[in-house]
Design a protein that fits this description.
TRAF-like, SKP1/BTB/POZ_sf, Potassium Channel Kv1.1, Chain A, Speckle-type POZ protein, five-stranded antiparallel sheet, alpha+beta, MATH/TRAF_dom
Length: 321
């Protein structure tokens, strides 16, 4: 399987009522961010001339026929010839699928069972120019398509016009995206010939490592950062530096969900220094709710001494009921 670029299923009907024909395509080793993933795409085939709005879901079944890996249910307007296919690039990692323990559960007779369920929304197709879906749904679908194309432009370096340097990595990006999302990048890259970044179309970042910079760029283009769980503290700081409100808010939420006795003082000071008001409030609440236990912990007292110069600790003291 690993030697194949694409595997196509036989054509199958959705049901006897609508008579739409579909085909499933599988890429066993789809390269995404330098990792191999199982990718699955659903295509509408045949002589369809109208747009068809459908929902679909992929499941990888074990040898007992139960779904072990399952994607979320997704919707798409399948349009021939322009947009006849849609799918999921990262169903599961290729390495994980071929691990011996997984193969025993999923692979039988050198075969892998994939279930593709298709639902035609509203039961019927729609003609171009006369949609039978709401304006809100149409807007959402167009936004989803636009988001997919923006991600594609970033991942495949289509039309890039600025380079972001971090560590040993060069990230290709788009000036319009950076300046539209960040007033700091706008000041660097827009109409200021005295700025080195403007003259060279290059932004050099030295105070964050390449994984954090990549996480920032991924978030600007896709609203997600693969390193969020592990590097949320650094992502919060880079978001504050470049005035990335959305990323900063996401980081505050993730960090606040992981407050512990061992890290709450450090996170409180970080939140104060990074003007993270939501995170700061959550840290205050955590300390006040657990003050009896914390007051008896030597590690908490040590942290208080470590950060004793910070004005936030005085604020914490004054906030004690």
């Amino acid at each position: 399987m690993s030697d194949l670029q694409e595997i196509e299923s036989p054509v199958f009907p959705e049901d006897t009522k609508t008579k739409h024909n579909w085909q499933l395509s599988m890429f066993p080793k789809k390269k995404v961010e330098n990792k191999d993933y199982i990718a699955l795409y659903l295509s509408i085939v045949g002589g369809v001339t109208d747009d068809v709005k459908a929902s679909f879901q992929f499941s990888i079944l074990n040898t007992d026929g139960r779904a072990v890996i399952q994607t979320s249910k997704r919707s798409h307007i399948f349009s021939r010839p322009n947009y006849p296919y849609f799918g999921v690039r990262k169903v599961t990692s290729s390495a994980g699928l071929i691990a011996p323990e997984q193969q025993q559960q999923l692979v039988a007779n050198d075969s892998l069972k994939i279930l593709c369920q298709v639902w035609i929304d509203d039961g019927l197709k729609q003609k171009l120019g006369a949609p039978n879906i709401s304006a809100e749904e149409t807007s959402r679908l167009w936004k989803d398509d636009l988001a997919n194309y923006i991600e594609k432009m970033y991942k495949e370096s289509i039309g890039t016009d600025v380079t972001v340097l971090a560590g040993t990595s060069n990230f290709k990006a788009h000036k319009a995206i950076l300046t539209g999302r960040s007033s700091v990048f706008a000041a660097m890259l827009n109409n200021n010939e005295n700025m080195l970044e403007m003259a060279t179309a290059t932004v050099t970042i030295t105070d964050f490592d390449q994984e954090v910079v990549k996480g920032m760029l991924d978030y600007l283009y896709t609203g997600q950062a693969d390193c969020m769980e592990e590097r949320a503290l650094e992502l919060l700081q880079i978001a504050e530096k470049y005035e990335l409100t959305g990323l900063k808010g996401h980081c505050e939420y993730v960090i606040s969900e992981n407050l512990k006795f061992e890290n709450v003082v450090m996170i409180l000071v970080l939140a104060h220094n990074q003007n993270a008001s939501y995170l700061k409030s959550r840290a205050f609440d955590f300390i006040n709710m657990n003050k009896q236990e914390l007051s008896q912990m030597e590690s908490f007292q040590a942290d208080v001494k470590t950060y004793s110069a910070s004005e936030i600790l005085a604020e914490l003291y004054l906030a004690q009921p």
